[in-house]
Write a structure and sequence with these properties.
Blueprint (H helix, E strand, L loop, with lengths): L1 H21 L24
C-alpha cells in the first residue's frame, strides 16, 4: 500500500513540474511568470 502512495506522490510531483514548465510564456522556456503584454492606451485630450 505504501508503494502505491509513493508512486502516486512521485507521479504527481513530476506532473506538476511538467505543467509549470510547459505553461511558461518566457522566451527562454525556463518557467516562471508570463511576460506582460504592453498595449497602447489612447488618451483623449480636450
Amino acid at each position: 500500500m505504501s508503494e502505491l502512495i509513493a508512486l502516486s506522490a512521485v507521479l504527481g510531483v513530476v506532473g506538476l513540474i511538467f505543467w509549470l514548465v510547459s505553461n511558461s510564456d518566457d522566451d527562454n522556456g525556463g518557467g516562471g511568470l508570463m511576460e506582460p503584454a504592453l498595449v497602447p492606451v489612447r488618451v483623449r485630450r480636450y
